[in-house]
């Protein structure tokens, strides 16, 4: 055998377009296809498995174990790892990602487990409105909700005067996200104004994600655009429920491209455990439990939206 034929050959690297937009056959699991579709819908640029991190080395200095997160989001400088494995294998993967965080503390990575993926399917999939539902326990009585909104108004008002001066008199904008924010937006705006701080109120609506399979990639659009001017404005996105952060992340980019100087988020209910992308949350009313919720303007269960409190929803 000649020396030329004995030298191992490097296999060609996959083209960049394969990394950026792989077809369905190149994903490791169908759940990754759905996650990619969700990221694409909300305008989050991603690359599939672009980076391999060494996390354990031998005594000779050679790497012995590696971690390759599923997705990289360049606009967020953040990695996502989705796992639907059994608990025994999840434990092993968690150990590797702890090593990744130890050796690469500057790398931001978020792990999504089976329960997280099922929650995304529930929120962005088909609505279960046909199921029989009933109100369960009241989690946040009317008095607690109003008291907490008053406290949120104080937090927001404390930071707005400086922004108003810097913006040369341009009043900050409280921008509700979707019709479910109306009640919270009006109450919050009224309480901020009662503290002597001038703000404008407006609302934006987003289209919903179509059911699969889609013939081509679909992206979110604004079904209702704000009427207020945006250049130079400090904008606070007002959401009744903040979960994945995808809507807020999309709107943050949309507003910045239209001249908003600063964008932050105020949520009445924050499902922090459900976060997929990081967004700038400046205040939140309550940490929301991982259950269905209704009342106080929440639109997922429209029949309960006029209730003055927030309660758990039971199905079946």
Features of the shown structure:
single chain; 316 residues; alpha/beta; Endonuclease, Chain A; Rossmann fold; 2 domains; 6-stranded mixed β-sheet; 4-stranded mixed β-sheet; 8 helices; 15 strands
Structure at a glance:
The protein has 316 residues and is of the alpha/beta class. The protein has helices at 3-6, 16-20, 30-41, 87-103, 114-124, 142-166, 182-194, 246-257, and strands at residues 47-48, 53-57, 63-67, 71-73, 78-82, 109-112, 133-140, 173-177, 200-206, 222-224, 234-242, 262-270, 281-287, 292-294, 310-315. The protein has two domains: 13-124, Endonuclease, Chain A (3-Layer(aba) Sandwich); 133-315, Rossmann fold.
Structure, described:
The protein is α/β, with parallel strands linked by helices and 316 residues long. It folds into 2 domains: 112 residues, Endonuclease, Chain A; 183 residues, Rossmann fold. The chain has 8 helices and 15 strands. The strands form 4 sheets. The chain has a 6-stranded mixed β-sheet with strand order 10-9-8-11-12-13. It has a 4-stranded mixed β-sheet with strand order 1-4-5-6. Strands 7-15-14 form a 3-stranded antiparallel β-sheet. Helix 6 packs across helix 7. It is globular and about 65 Å long.
């Amino acid at each position: 055998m000649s020396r030329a034929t004995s030298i191992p050959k490097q296999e060609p690297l996959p083209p960049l377009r394969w990394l950026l937009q792989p077809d369905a056959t190149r994903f490791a699991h169908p759940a990754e296809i759905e996650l990619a579709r969700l990221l694409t819908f909300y305008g989050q640029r991603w690359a599939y498995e672009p980076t391999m991190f060494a996390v354990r080395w031998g005594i000779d200095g050679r790497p012995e174990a590696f971690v390759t997160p599923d997705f990289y989001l360049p606009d967020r400088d953040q990695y996502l790892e989705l796992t639907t494995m059994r608990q025994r294998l999840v434990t092993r993967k968690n150990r590797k990602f702890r090593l990744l965080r130890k050796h690469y503390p500057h790398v931001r990575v978020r792990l999504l487990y089976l329960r997280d993926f099922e929650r995304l399917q529930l929120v962005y999939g088909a609505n279960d409105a046909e199921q029989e539902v009933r109100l369960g326990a009241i989690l946040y009585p009317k008095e607690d909700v109003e008291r907490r909104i008053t406290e949120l108004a104080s937090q927001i008002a404390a930071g707005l005067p400086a922004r108003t001066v810097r913006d040369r008199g341009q009043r900050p904008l409280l921008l509700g996200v979707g019709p479910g924010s109306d009640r919270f937006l009006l109450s919050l705006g009224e309480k901020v104004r009662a503290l002597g701080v001038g703000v404008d109120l407006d609302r934006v609506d987003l289209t919903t994600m179509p059911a699969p399979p889609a013939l081509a990639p679909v992206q979110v659009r604004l079904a209702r655009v704000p009427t207020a001017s945006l250049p130079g404005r400090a904008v606070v996105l007002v959401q009744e429920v903040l979960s994945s952060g995808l809507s807020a992340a999309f709107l943050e980019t949309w507003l910045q491209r239209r001249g908003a100087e600063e964008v932050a988020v105020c949520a009445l209910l924050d499902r922090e455990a459900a976060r997929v992308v990081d967004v700038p949350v400046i205040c939140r009313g309550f940490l929301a439990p991982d259950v269905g919720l209704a009342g106080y303007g929440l639109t997922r269960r429209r029949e309960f939206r006029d209730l003055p409190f927030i309660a758990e929803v039971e199905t079946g």
